[in-house]
């Protein structure tokens, strides 16, 4: 055998196994067609991974599904709930402003009736919601407005500039217009009713209602002035509450509104 045609059998490892390609059985046309229709065969690892991805996608779709919108409450119960919320929010806001006035003292003009009016006019949105709730909503809106009105300004004796700088004009006008709309809604309501046993409402505060002893110099001293201030604040708050409770029960709402 020529040297150029010799095979180097020594370079192949002794344990090498040559694949018997010639002896591999050929696939028939039917087997090839079935294999192509079945698609590619995935390994177990790939199949498990695909199942995991599919499961995560389904869970994500379930978690992103929006909850059904809650139906807005209607009727007398809903109107009374919103009414109570308005009263509570008004008390909370007024208490916050009163605390600032007391902290700043009588010589400060940092908080005036302008601030009170601006705070109260923001409740008109809730009042309008009540107005759209039928007769019970109109009744609650009317009572809420009568509660908001006295809180739309501060105690004019609390500081030298409590009357403000003219910032009450627009809020007051807006509150007045809203009240006129509500009165129009209640115009056909029955004004008569059994009004016996209604809560009494105390008169407006006067200096004669103060219980601080005798003014030795003809004028209250520092301690007495503090007592008068606290008694007045308590009196006014209790009067507002008495008027509110009476409004909620009275039948003659027109006469009661004029009386208060």
Automatic annotation (TrEMBL):
Compositionally biased region (Polar residues): 1-30
Location of the region described as Disordered in the Swiss-Prot/TrEMBL record: 1-78
Ranges of biased composition (kind: Basic residues): 53-63
Top-rank taxon, per record: Eukaryota
The protein, known as: Uncharacterized protein
């Amino acid at each position: 055998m020529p040297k150029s045609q010799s095979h180097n059998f020594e370079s192949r490892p002794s344990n090498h196994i040559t694949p018997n390609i010639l002896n591999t059985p050929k696939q028939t046309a039917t087997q090839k067609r079935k294999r192509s229709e079945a698609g590619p065969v995935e390994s177990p690892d790939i199949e498990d991974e695909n199942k995991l991805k599919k499961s995560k996608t389904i869970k994500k779709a379930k978690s992103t599904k929006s909850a059904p919108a809650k139906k807005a409450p209607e009727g007398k119960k809903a109107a009374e709930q919103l009414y109570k919320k308005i009263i509570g929010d008004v008390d909370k806001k007024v208490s916050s402003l009163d605390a600032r006035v007391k902290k700043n003292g009588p010589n400060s003009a940092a908080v005036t009736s302008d601030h009170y009016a601006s705070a109260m006019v923001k409740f008109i949105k809730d009042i309008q919601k009540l107005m759209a709730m039928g007769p019970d909503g109109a009744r609650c809106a009317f009572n809420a407005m009568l509660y908001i009105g006295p809180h739309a300004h501060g105690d004019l004796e609390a500081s030298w500039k409590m009357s403000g700088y003219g910032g009450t004009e627009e809020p007051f006008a807006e509150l007045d217009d809203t009240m006129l709309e509500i009165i129009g809604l209640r115009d056909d309501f029955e004004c008569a009713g059994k009004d016996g046993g209604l809560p009494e409402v105390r008169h407006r505060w006067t200096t004669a209602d103060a219980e601080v002893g005798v003014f030795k110099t003809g004028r209250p001293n520092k301690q007495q002035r503090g007592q008068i201030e606290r008694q007045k604040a308590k009196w006014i708050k209790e009067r507002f509450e008495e008027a509110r409770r009476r409004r909620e029960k009275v039948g003659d709402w027109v006469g009661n509104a004029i009386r208060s």
